[in-house]
Specification:
The chain is α+β, with helices and mostly antiparallel strands and about 475 residues long. It has two domains: about 1-105, Nucleic acid-binding proteins (OB fold (Dihydrolipoamide Acetyltransferase, E2P)), CATH 2.40.50.140; about 130-315 and about 365-465, BirA Bifunctional Protein, domain 2, CATH 3.30.930. The protein has helices spanning about 5-10, 55-60, 100, 115-120, 130-150, 210-220, 255-275, 275-290, 305-315, 320-330, 330-335, 350-365, 415-420, 430-440, 450-460; strands at about 1-5, 20-30, 35, 45-50, 65-75, 85-95, 155, 160, 175, 185, 190, 200-205, 220-230, 240-250, 315-320, 365-375, 390-395, 400-410, 445-450. It has an eight-stranded mixed β-sheet with strand order 7-13-14-19-18-17-16-15. α5 (about 130-150) crosses α7, α5 crosses α15 (about 450-460) and α7 packs antiparallel against α9. The radius of gyration is 27 Å and the shape is globular. The model has no long low-confidence stretch (mean pLDDT about 95).
Amino acid sequence: MDYLSIKEILSQGQVGKEYEVKGWIRSFRNNQFVALSDGSTLQTFQLVLNPDKFDETSFKNLSIATSVSASGKLAESLGQGQKFELIVDKIVVLGHANSDEVQKTILQPKRHSLDFLREQAHLRFRTQLFGAVFRVRHHLAMAIHDFFDSRGFFYLHAPIITASDAEGAGEMFQVTSLDLEHLPQKDGRIDYEQDFFAKKASLSVSGQLQAELAAMGLGKVYTFGPTFRAENSNTSRHLAEFWMIEPEAAFMDLAGDMDLAEAMLKHCLSYALEKCADDIAFLDERLKQEESQKPMIERSKLNLIEKLKFCIEQPYQRLTYREAIDILMQSTPQKKGKFKYPVRGFGTDLQSEHERYLVETHFERPVILTDYPREIKAFYMRLNDDQETVAAMDILFPGIGEIVGGSQREERLEVLVEKMKSFDISEEEMSWYLDSRRFGTVPHAGFGLGFERLVMFVTGLTNIRDVIPFARTPKNCHF
């Protein structure tokens, strides 16, 4: 007898053949029909029990959330919405679930609020919603690897522990083995020479700088791993631990960087629509129900599937930051005071509302903005000939604004050194980074994609804590 997942049985099962299936009971009705789920697919699998073969004691044990192993012959189903069902000869309870206790949990077979689901995050993988979300997350991760591998990029494992602050923001989690109640002192300061690494170390905020080093020898690399920000922002858009994709390519300029990022996003969205059709259809329907309850003026112009296709089928509009500022200054929301953060002209750090206006109202397509003021971007971005802007780019999507940020890197040693001074970054501590400019420097570029932001976009969820298995946020580090 073959043991297959429910997904495998539904896709390749043979009528009349015996199978064993295992999973958790979603519902049990009429002492005969069990809806079983094993997480491999959105769909439940119907087990049909013969009352003549099972006594009352067996039925009492078959409660919601109980895990079972069932065996029998596969038959064509007479019910709607299902291709097969299993005519069960034998069923064994693997783990019983107390019905009274289940009633207090999110395992009840009904729709729950996202707040309630977050309260019991350890159980939410068993719900339809989060089963769909994390299957989509898996396939998006596979899409990332598939895309870069097919283009000759090498997968690089950047360090999680680092002594450098790639973004210069200082919002880093410190890593230490010192006794915090008896810190060693030297000249009135903490003596980090006695620490594990003999220097002050932190969790990484980015793998980009290390990716640049690898690209100088391997040509094209990408990182895909966890990064950490000790930013005390308790919002629906921030996490203390999140995953980043950061490709880096030698001999690539800003135009090539934009081409690569646009192609990657289109590949990932297409991959998800192909591999996760059932899950995305389920999420789309859920989002439609939520939108229908909003006032007409607040409803989204596109449903979830339309939004994904919107970002696949159209070329992305490219314009400079300066051109975008001019458009925003002349926009109706700006003139009527509808923007929460008014646009003040060149040098304004664009907010999500400005980015969304460009995408959803003005151009009605994804947008790539380039050539930002040097003062509002990181030290490693290449200075343009105008001395005012840097060769940076952001990709803007409907509903969320920025989804990708990247740049051509400053490959000229003397210019990079001057920029580091203006950012108060130590040349001595970053000598290893400067060596990549001293010994055969070349033009190179890359970008960063926050993976959770991509998952949010594809699933339609609006809180970043709902698209990562175990959210780490201020005052919250469970499991």
